[in-house]
Amino acid sequence: MEQTTVEESQRWFVAHGWHFDNNKDFVDKDGKFFDYPTQGQHYEYLQEQIRDLVFKEMETNFDLEQHQIPKAKGQKPPVDEEEKKEFDVYCPTIFTSKDATFKPNLLVIVQGLGMVPPGQWARKLFTNGLKDQYKLATQMPYIEKAQKHEDWGLVLCDPNHASPEPKTEDTRAHHVLRVWQDVVAPSKAKNIMYIGFSAGTVAVLDLYDTLSVRPEFVKRVKAIALLDGESGASRQAQGQDGKWLQDHSRAYCQKGMSGFLGPNSETVNTHDHDSVPGLAVDSVFEFLDEMLQIFGEDVIADKEKSQ
């Protein structure tokens, strides 16, 4: 495929008037969708602009804030300006709702692998030529539902941060652990919930493997939703902690993948992996609410008072 410079892609982008229309479809000034066979040389630039537009919506319409999560615990940004620039390149940036760490309930979302930034599930859905993909491609429906709960905080992780370093299963798991260390664990939340999609399920379950021996983790984490990735079934069979995971998790799987389902699983009505989160959103939040009703700190306290 023909190579282009950033400047060429920028001119192409402006000349074609790419934008989100009133239906939230990403189209050019003539209402046409992106065509990869003829426009693929501009794909990465286009996706960067979509990323920035989604970021702007999260900040403007949902009042979310960006926070850096250094790779090392306790690491501070350098004072030197040049060193700070390099630090920024390699430092993941998460999004959180305002006062997220002061809410009694905290929801943490981890997307799949690839060049997928916070706020998105699958960037290729923006450019697949189909209408009505925005609510499937982005995490906006999840953000909207979370913010309907006034006592919920929200954290969107950044395991695929746009640094030159290669991303692996270990780097993704490390990022989710660092978010726990810097944001989740120090928060005031009594009830913590995780949602992982695709490879994000592995990162969340790796966090469980790392921290499940700690009373704080099994006491505060009330729900884990696993979307079309690892179901957790193999880990449920390991030791006493498997019972906790079985009680607190649920897996959501695309049609035709029932052989991979564990005991607490649901099939989502699609054969498209990337569409699973968007189509499962109502069921996922029903599950989260159910877990809070059963295991929520305030619920348990009320039960103890009545005894």
UniProtKB/TrEMBL annotation:
<dbReference type="GO" id="GO:0005634">
    <property type="term" value="C:nucleus"/>
</dbReference>
<dbReference type="GO" id="GO:0035197">
    <property type="term" value="F:siRNA binding"/>
</dbReference>
<dbReference type="InterPro" id="IPR053858">
    <property type="entry name" value="Arb2_dom"/>
</dbReference>
<feature type="domain" description="Arb2">
    <location>
        <begin position="168"/>
        <end position="253"/>
    </location>
</feature>
<dbReference type="Pfam" id="PF22749">
    <property type="entry name" value="Arb2"/>
</dbReference>
<protein>
    <recommendedName>
        <fullName>Arb2 domain-containing protein</fullName>
    </recommendedName>
</protein>
<dbReference type="GO" id="GO:0031048">
    <property type="term" value="P:regulatory ncRNA-mediated heterochromatin formation"/>
</dbReference>
<dbReference type="InterPro" id="IPR048263">
    <property type="entry name" value="Arb2"/>
</dbReference>
